[in-house]
């Protein structure tokens, strides 16, 4: 019901006042995109859990650093109103690495190309970026988690408890993993990944990563209660100014 109420099929209308210039035309200050690689190997997804072990070991360490550095960034925001750029770039890299692993693994199964061991952009079918905010409101440090509580309820449903609360994609859980396993079964039986199912899964993953970005204080823009499905982010359109009605002379 919650997903049905929040689903949106049109382009999001945003007022980009206060946004970083880089994100003026983005649907949200974080961009989560993916390209479905076709054809996919029918049975490779059955052993990807084994192939991903080296990545998961690294991600455990990176996420521990992510949590510590995000706490340090919160202190810096309270004192200065700015998110330290070095910490911001590191956290973006961790989330980028996580998205690649999730996309290759059991939160999408959208490619057979093995994820690179890097936090930098690398031409991978799954891409992630966040626009750096010039300033972050100090109050966000104290209000982000309470304000995001409706999203957290949804995230537990969508991706399970571990990923919803900042853990790496170590444990399967939630609606996204269930849909991904359905996609894997269809791939095994029919040799193709249904495009509509892919669009839905990536849209749900996008929702989850937007909320994580907000909770990590990397943007003060509240995540939209809207399902932006598909591999590409929608292009935002600016609202048209409302013109006053002309008065007809008596």
TrEMBL record:
Keyword set includes Transmembrane helix: yes
Compositionally biased region (Basic residues): 240-250
Organism expressing this protein natively: Pseudonocardia acidicola
InterPro entries reported in the protein's UniProt record: DUF4389
Protein name in UniProt: DUF4389 domain-containing protein
Region of interest (Disordered), ranges: 231-250
Transmembrane segment boundaries: 49-79, 140-164, 170-189
Alphabetically ordered keywords of this record: Membrane, Transmembrane, Transmembrane helix
Pfam family, one: DUF4389
